[in-house]
Amino acid sequence: MVPRVPFPARRITLAVVLVPVLAGVLGTLLPSIGLMPGPAQVPATAAWTGLAAAPGLGASVALSLRIGLVSTGLSLSLALLIVAGAHDTALMRWSRRALAPLLAVPHVSVALGLAFLLAPSGWIVRLLSPWATGWTLPPDVATAPDPWGLAAVVALVLKETPYLLLMLLAALPQVDADRAVRAARGLGHGPLSAWGRAVLPRVWPLIRLPVYAVLAYGLSVVDVALVLAPATPPPLAVAVVRWLSDPDVSSRAQGAAGAVLQTGLVIAAIGAWRLGEAAVARLARPWVSRGPSATGPWEGRLGIWSAQTAALPVVLLTAGAVLAMALWSVADAWFWPAPWPSALTLETWARHLSGVAWPLGTTVSVGLVATVLAVGLAAALLEAECRATGRGGLSDGVIYLPLLVPQVGFLYGVTVLATLVGLDGTWAAVTASHLLFVLPYVYLTLAGPWRRLDPRWGRVAAGLGAAPGRVFWCVTLPLLLRPLLFAAAVGFAVSVGQYLPTLFLGAGLHPTLTTEAVALATGGDRRIIGVHVFLQAILPLLGFALAVGVPGWLYRDRRGMRAAEAGG
Amino acid sequence: MTLALDGVTLWRGGRRLLGPLDLTVPGGAVVTVMGPSGAGKSTLLAFVAGDLDPAFRAKGRVLLEGRDLAGLPPERRRLGLLFQDPLLFPHLSVGENLAFGIPRVVPRRERRARVAAALTEAGMDGFGGRDPATLSGGQAARVALMRVLLAEPRALLLDEPFSSLDATLRARLRAFVFDHIARRGLPTLLVTHDPEDARGEVVRVET
After folding, report:
1. Do B91 and A466 touch (CB under 8 A)?
2. HSE-up of residue A301 (Cα within 13 Å, Cβ side)
3. Could you say which of 1.10.3720.10, 3.40.1160.10, 1.50.10.10, 3.40.50.2300 is the CATH number of the domain covering A1-6+347-395+423-568?
4. Are the beta carbons of A51 and A257 closer than 8 angstroms?
5. Does B53 contact A390 at a Cβ distance shorter than 8 Å?
6. What is the Cα–Cα distance from A491 to B119, expressed in whole angstroms?
7. Which residues of B touch A468 (CB under 8 A)?
8. Rounded distance, CA A263 to CA A261, Å?
9. Cis bond upstream, residue B161 (ω within 30)
């Protein structure tokens, strides 16, 4: 029989993923019905009556729903337009290359950069004023944050579109999209219509979980909302974090009830989305099998045109956001309405470098350790799955759990748990909490290429006398080095961007660049924020550069090892 | 040396795919299992090699020199596998590919000598440092055979080994492979759908 992986990968993964999530949900649920840890107690129903009476609760819930649903709908539409419209064109190859840097920039960096780009006195207005707008003073409107949460939606769309694009690109080879589109176009359909009819219905189930993860994230996002969403009333998740951080025990109980409500909100939204999917699928049924309409050559251009329209703003705004903050970090004086700083100086850097060193060190050490652990676990899981062909590996749903349950919904419970075992506020607890979110991304990025690896490589090696261990180290890993390092870069970027786990498990003792940047956001000194945003963006970018460069250099004389595609 | 199959039967789900099959391959001889694609020929080789996909079920014995191979993991059966594609490891050089299967006990100097000798035998002197991706189809196929032979197999399993090559190359490679098999006295089990590739005793299987 096939030997097992000499390492209980499944059990460790279950312990790393399932235990904290379930215990965390429970540890949030119990306080919400009055069972607080510690001596102070509150009446059983006080938390929920307090929550119901909280001013602006309805507005908070509505704002959360709006941000979550609109940002998910927009991101998904843009990602689908890009994949469908740019199918098999130069734009697609270009998009694949742009994907890694877009994924690298953390949510908070994008949000902070957008806060400057979109502000009434921001870069976009400065570049247009006064010559085009006629404004000699910044207009008196709130744009970032705006009362409707649109700025937060934009920030989320900039981050989630590349992520959904990556997931789509990973799913396409599984449904043989190229040939399906070619066949449909041969039957007379235009590019968008061919993709929508021949590929979309089959690729949809494969990206369902990633879409739900995006939805859950958008509904419960905290860091982006702190920067770009209205503050009174804030989105539900922000209010919950505020209550949970209150020293008053009845406020914390109310926060726990809010966290449970937040989880319920996510479950309800995912349920509603699922029903919507079913309805759309039913309504679109006749459309899918309808024959091509007589169209001119404009339909071919429509595909590429819509893909460009979808891709360009994402790239330009993300790049603009990071560049603007990088510019601020070296700006001398930059008064309204000057389009550029009057002079460049390294003074901000010199002044704040020592202060930034400690969070920078924490960011790197937590990120590296969480990433190495996640890559090791993911590789062991996938290897175990490959050796046990036929029997299912760990189902993707379980791995996805930490991404589907909102962070505020269970991290408080995890913190309570960590306090009980005396781990709260330790570096190890922060790293473990990062691993919880790094592992799913690493596993899901790695799973596709791993499962696609030709099984004959292993058989040839075994035929040459190589035992499973040697096959793993000398054949499987080298052949998968590129996707392995890419997955590691994704994982590191995810860790660098974590806000809530660092805040909760670190108990404020282990600030990272992300928590510092969010804390600075309210202060509004754009120069210091610029320093943080630049460092925050450059770290993951460096990771991706290494992930591309190292295999390229190692295998510079091996033509068969060149990258076939980004991330695969 | 003799390779023998004794009542080998393969099922997929509840459906019988192939067999029962009895055959004996004496040392230096070739037995061809011929049948259309989908007849379970490759699955048969996977069963003999010891890495049958769990989706299949098998009955019967595989005997090498009279010893039942059941329970032996693939890497300890010492059966050389040759596929349609040469499957040279793309991250290793030609020389490293050749050395991959040489038993660990062989000292380093001796390993190098064996690799060099194998390259000479394949008419590819000085190719040791080359990137396998730069080889021609015929060269890659010859390296693949030499790599299998250097692992000192006790029998060979060939899975449509010539199908990816064009006609002239195919005849030359066929001669090269069968010549080596005969010279080393290895029992060889060949599966193919192409009558042109068949050698020795031919066993037909149907779908």
Report:
1. no
2. 3
3. 1.10.3720.10
4. yes
5. yes
6. 44
7. 73, 75
8. 5
9. no
Q: Work out the pLDDT band at A326, boundaries 50, 70, 90.
A: very high
Cross-chain residue pair B131–A557, CB shorter than 8 Å:
yes
* DSSP assignment letter at A473: I
Q: Has residue A42 got a pLDDT over 90?
A: no
What is the 8-class DSSP label of residue A360?
H
Residue spans per domain, chain A: 1-6+347-395+423-568, 58-238+271-345
Is the Cβ–Cβ distance between A10 and A394 less than 8 Å?
yes
Mark yes or no for CB contact A561/B74 under 8 Å.
no
- For residue B68, count other CB atoms closer than 10 A to its CB: 11
Average pLDDT estimate for B109-114: 94
Instruction: Name chain B contacts of A558, Cβ cutoff 8 Å.
Output: 90-91, 131, 133
Contacts with B91 from chain A: Cβ below 8 Å: 478-479, 481, 555, 558, 560-561
Assigned CATH topology for domain A58-238+271-345: MetI-like fold (1.10.3720)
Is a pLDDT exceeding 60 seen at residue B159?
Answer: yes
CB A138 within 8 A of CB A181: no
Phi, psi of A152 (to 5 degrees): -65, -40
Residue B50 three-state SS: coil
Between B39 and A518, the higher pLDDT residue: A518
A13 in Cβ contact with A399 (< 8 Å): yes
HSE, CB side, 13 Å, CA atoms: give it for residue A133: 15
Q: Token pair of B86, please?
A: 């040469």
E strand or H helix at A382, and its extent?
helix A347-387
Report the run of H or E that residue A388 belongs to, with start and end: none
Pick from B43, B91, B149 the residue to mutate for testing the A interface (most A CBs within 10 Å).
B91
Smallest CA-to-CA distance from A515 within A494, A535, A500, A533 is with A500
